[in-house]
Every structure is written in C-alpha cells, then in structure tokens.
Design goal:
Domain PAS: 14-59
Protein name: Fis family transcriptional regulator
Bound molecules: adenosine-5'-triphosphate
Radius of gyration: 42 Å
Strand order of the largest sheet: 2-1-5-4-3
Distance between the termini: 113 Å
Pfam families: AAA_lid_14, HTH_8, PAS, Sigma54_activat
Largest sheet: 5 strands, antiparallel
InterPro entries: AAA+_ATPase, AAA_lid_NorR, Homeodomain-like_sf, HTH_Fis, P-loop_NTPase, PAC, PAS, PAS-assoc_C
Helix content: 40-55%
Number of domains: 4
Structural class: alpha/beta
Strand content: 15-25%
CATH topology of the largest domain: Rossmann fold
Domain PAC: 85-137
Length: 475
C-alpha cells in the first residue's frame, strides 16, 4: 500500500502527527476525538475526555479565575451558528490545575449539509507571550533610559556650549588666600555654601573647586542659572515635570535636582529665583525632598547645595523679594569672593595665567605682558573683574604681533576709569606717576638723573614706596 493510501485508510494518522492540539466535538459538546498533542499540552488523556463535556475540563474559567459559562464558550457557539471563529487571549486548563494561554480556531463539521459537530485546533502560546512580555519590558527600559539620556545629553550639551575653561583659582594676595582657606575647610563638609561677590570675580570657579575638593567629586556637578529661565519654566528646570504637566510638556522630564543626585547642585544668580520657586527650594533644603511639576510622587535626593549671587540678599529680604527663611538656610557658610580691585597685587599672576590659557585657545606663543601695560592694568578699577581682564587680554592677544603684550589697544584704561568712575585712588595715581618717571630714567633709581632725584625723594623712600605699591622693572 502506498503512503497516500495509508493516510486515506486511516485519517487519524495525520491528525495524530500534527503539533497543534485537536479536539473533535459532537453536537452535545462531548469530546469525540483528542489527539496526542492535545494530551501532551493539557495532561488530560483522551480516555478521560471522550464522551465528556470537555468545556468543564479545560475551559471552565478565565485566566483571572472567574467562571467561563459553557453557554458563552466560543467552540460551542460554532456548533449552533456554524460560524468559524479564530480566538485569542483565552486559556485552557491543565489536569494539574494550571493554565496556559491559547489561540484556537473552532470550525463546524458538516455531513450532508447538516452540522454534526465542531473541531477546535489550538496552540499553546506561552512561549510567544513570554517573548512578547520580555520585549515589552525591554522596550519600557529602553524608553526610560532614552529619556534619562535625553535629559543628561541636553544638560551636557549646554555645559559644553558654555566653553567652560577648567582653570584653577589663581592669586596670592592675603584676601584671596584667606578665601581659599575657607573654601578648603568647608569643602570637606556637606554644608550649604553661599558664594557672594561681584560679577566676574570667579564665583562659579569657586563653586566648581568646592565640588572638586569634596568627597562628591566623582559625582555630577550640575549648574542652574536661576536668571536664565522664565518664572514659569524655572520650577520645571529645577524639579522636572510629568508628561502633560503644562502646555508643551510632551514628555516626562527630570529636573536638575534629580540629575545632581549624590553630587553638587550650583544655583547661580540665586537672587533671581521667583518667590514661588523659593518656597519649593526651601522644602528641598529642609527635607531633601520634592515633587516634579504636575506630579504627586515625592522624590528624595542626596545633594550638596551651593548658591551664588552678586545681589545683596539681606536687602532683598527687607524689601520682601527674597524669603527670609530661605536666606538663613542658604547663608550657612558664606564665602565672599573679593573684587579684582581689592587684590590688584594678583593682577600680574592672574594676567600671566590667563595669557597661558589664551596661548592654548588661540594657538599663540605669547610670553607675557609688558611692565608698562601691567601698571596700567593695576591702575584700573575693574568693574567687570576677572572676566573683563580676560576679555581685554584676549582682544590684545588676537591683535598682538609680538611675543609680549603691550596692551596698545587698551592702555587708556586708567583714563577710562577716571572717566567712568571719577578719580584714581591716591595709591593708583602715585604708582602710575612713579612708574612713568622710572621709565623716563630707564629705571635708574639713585644718583644724578635717577628717579629719586627727579621725584624729590630720598632713595630709601622711593624704594619703600615701590615695594608697597609693588612696582618693579621685570614683568
Ligand atoms: N582666581 C582665578 N584664577 C584664574 N581665573 C579665574 C579666577 N577667578 C575667575 N577666573 C576666570 O574668570 C572668569 C569669570 O569667572 P566666573 O564665571 O567664575 O565668575 P562669576 O563670579 O561666576 O561671574 P558671574 O557672576 O558673572 O556669573 C572665568 O573665565 C574664570 O575662569
């Protein structure tokens, strides 16, 4: 007998060989056929099911355990209406009481145009479900990580765009050294620090060094310029927002406080923080806890807070534009960064340091600055502080053809000072005059045609004045 004949003689051979489970039903819903694949999947042997209402064995309940009445059974329905059904999201129950997700087709069986029963062909889709769930979980994780990366990336890009020069704090004057000593002491603690000082004095550099010297140095240092955001946006910038918290909040976003967890947050221009955000900040300072805008879940962070301002916060408290309780919370350890005019003796070393940075930035090989130019710099009162010095040196460095900056473009600085700020101090005028005379005398101090004689001073007095005013020939 050929193989085809075998199959035609006994169609069960085929049905027994397929991988899908097959149940055949008569019109009363009793099992008339159960193939081995169905036995394997359900654990019920065909002898246990044949002639029985099979719904009661493998289809009695839904996945959540609630009852699945027989008159709702989709396999039975096929026997009544003759419609073929493809069914998903249902379970079949095993003999051991467990269940598995199935997909099945129930098809009516006709004989002489009369329905005589139905056949259900089913597949165990647990594997497929597990894979789908794993995929869904992986996708969720990817989504969370993508959001996190987006937040961090936006922040990093902003930081990169600032073109921050990672310069050290330079200066030997007593006032500056005293500030450095304070900085070093407080860096070892977790205390909140309030950095005070005029624009361009180096407050941000102080904050960065505070973090660098602290035990949090391997964790993030996150800066927020409180003046750079509108009152409506600053809260979401600091604390983040939930999706849909306000028009335009299309995605959930982490705030700077969350990004700075375990590290340091630097709140620059804290005096510009709107009152509403001040209240929220106060709560973070008290409880280290906050909620995202539009959210209700409290988020805890472990953060060191450093704030800076050029404003007089105490006066702002008196005027009612800064919360008194917040002021006291921030003012735990104030550090005052001196203005450049308070430490003109640092100008030579600062200028040299800045020129070395400019060499790198501009690809130049400048050696320093001329003596005359240096005196001019020391006679100016620097309303823009180190940033102004930096700008002047950069402009000069770009224009300069020689190795030594002579500040030919900016030598009228002291005149500018006089014009913009009234008069030179006596010491500045004295230093300028002595330097001019020394230049005239080719730096000969004593004897005939020496500077002391021209100035009408004893040589020793001139020398002590030069020492006091830090006037010397070499740059
Ligand atoms: N002691 C220093 N030594 C060398 N460079 C310094 C020093 N202090 C400040 N600078 C440089 O001066 C510039 C201004 O410093 P910084 O931005 O820290 O000032 P700031 O007080 O935060 O200014 P603002 O109040 O305008 O934000 C920076 O480029 C910084 O590198």
């Amino acid at each position: 007998m050929s193989i085809i004949k075998h199959f035609l003689a006994d169609p069960k051979l085929l049905l027994n060989a397929v991988g899908e489970g097959i149940y055949g039903f008569d019109l009363s819903g009793n099992a008339v056929f159960v193939n081995p694949a169905a036995e394997r999947m359900t654990g019920w042997q065909s002898a246990e099911l044949l002639g029985k209402k099979i719904h009661q064995y493998h289809h009695h309940s839904h996945a959540d355990g609630s009852e699945y009445p027989a008159d709702e059974c989709k396999i039975y329905k096929t026997m009544f209406d003759g419609k073929t059904r493809q069914v998903q999201h249902e379970v079949f129950w095993r003999k051991d009481g467990s269940c598995f997700p199935v997909e099945y087709t129930s098809t009516p069986i006709y004989k002489d145009k009369q329905i005589i029963g139905a056949v259900a062909i089913f597949r165990d889709v647990s594997q497929q479900h597990n894979t789908e769930n794993a995929l869904r979980e992986a996708l969720n994780k990817v989504q969370v990580l993508t959001e996190q990366l987006k937040d961090e990336n936006a922040y990093l890009l902003e930081t990169l765009n600032e073109n921050w020069q990672d310069s050290g704090l330079v200066g030997n004057s007593d006032i500056f050294q005293a500030m450095l000593a304070q900085l070093e002491l407080v860096s070892k603690t977790d205390s909140t620090v309030l950095i005070l000082g005029e624009n361009g004095t180096g407050k941000e550099l102080v904050a960065r060094n505070l973090h660098r010297l602290s035990e949090r140095s391997s964790q993030p240092f996150v800066k927020v310029n409180c003046a750079a955001f509108s009152p409506t946006l600053i809260e979401s910038e600091l604390f983040g927002h939930e999706k849909g918290a306000f028009t335009g909040a299309n995605e959930k976003r982490k705030g700077r406080f969350e990004l700075a967890d375990k590290g340091t947050i630097f709140l620059d221009e804290i005096g510009e923080l709107p009152l509403e955000a001040q209240s929220k900040l106060l709560r973070v300072l008290q409880e280290r806890e906050f909620e995202r805008v539009g959210g209700s879940k409290s988020i805890r962070v472990d953060i060191r807070i450093v704030a800076a301002t050029n404003r007089d916060l105490r006066q702002m408290v008196e005027e009612g534009s800064f919360r008194m309780d917040l002021y006291y919370r921030l003012n735990v350890f104030p550090i005052r960064v001196p203005a450049l005019r308070e430490r003109i003796e640092d100008i030579p070393v600062l200028a040299n340091n800045l020129i070395m940075q400019l060499n790198k930035k501009l690809g130049k090989q400048l050696k320093g600055i001329s003596k005359k130019a240096l005196y001019a710099l020391q006679g100016y009162d620097w309303p823009g502080n180190i940033r102004e010095l930096q700008n002047i040196l950069e402009r000069e460095a770009i224009l300069s053809k020689g190795r030594l900056l002579d500040l030919s473009q900016s030598l009228n600085l002291s005149e500018q000072t006089r014009a913009e700020h009234g008069v030179l101090t006596l010491a500045q005028a004295e230093a300028e005059h002595i330097t001019r005379v020394l230049d005239m005398c080719n730096w000969k101090i004593s004897g005939t045609n020496g500077a002391a004689e021209k100035l009408g001073l004893p040589e020793s007095t001139l020398r002590s004045k030069m020492k006091k005013l830090k006037i010397s020939k070499d740059p």
